[in-house]
Amino acid sequence: MAGLEFMHSRDNPVYHGDLKGNNVLIFGTLEAPVAKLTDFGLSKICAPMPTAATRVGGNTFWTAPEIVQNKVQRSLWGGPPPKDSKLTWEADVWGFGATAFELITQWRFPFKDMNESRLEHLLCCPSDIIDNEIADYLACVPHAVRSILHSCLSADPAGRSTIFDLRKQWNEIVTPEFQSQDWKSLMDEVEAPQRFYHCFRKEPGRSFEDWRTWMESRRDNGIGRVQRPLSTSDSDSESSC
């Protein structure tokens, strides 16, 4: 978070454009780890003459909906990217939220029950459908960080907090929680069937399939929800919001 804060606070801000767990390296010790951002190949410097990589947006699993929508539009119609296809601080904040979700849940990537094609489909749905899906995913994380990740993973970029506001919220809400209890205690706040991932793996009845069944039921029974997604091993098929 401090790294993004530094980048976004420059006179000519720098937007990373490819935030994900693989691009965060941990230095220091187990007792005092230090996280550092790496891989600026898709970054943009907002100088008087903006400079950027020719491609906007990294891996779909960490990419903001507005970037994915522009990517899909370009693939459908061909030609250059739409005029609003650009990196923004809002897209970086979405990437931060997806990365935090990835690390907290200890998944190899966020939104684990979808393949890339199905996730692209979700991220091209109306904002309320995306927000409903995200709310169910965030039921998998402790209460202390849930509201902060909601403010990162808003489908509408205007609903996302700046990295500076996120830092303040983190210091006021999350840090005191971390100081007052250990991580396992915080994770124990997560209720079944959302308590399925790595640190609960040895608990009976805590399985990924239980959680996926719950998510599918939410999608099947909800109004205005995206239809049941394909699993990561399924082939692509047509579906609609």
Automatic annotation (TrEMBL):
It holds the Pfam family Pkinase. It catalyses: L-seryl-[protein] + ATP = O-phospho-L-seryl-[protein] + ADP + H(+); L-threonyl-[protein] + ATP = O-phospho-L-threonyl-[protein] + ADP + H(+). Keywords: ATP-binding, Kinase, Nucleotide-binding, Serine/threonine-protein kinase, Transferase. The keyword Transferase applies. GO terms for molecular function: ATP binding; protein serine/threonine kinase activity. Its EC number is 2.7.11.1. The keyword Kinase applies. Gene3D superfamilies: Transferase(Phosphotransferase) domain 1. InterPro entries: Kinase-like_dom_sf, NEK_Ser/Thr_kinase, Prot_kinase_dom, Ser/Thr_kinase_AS. Transmembrane segments: none annotated. Residues 1-174 form the Protein kinase domain. This is non-specific serine/threonine protein kinase.
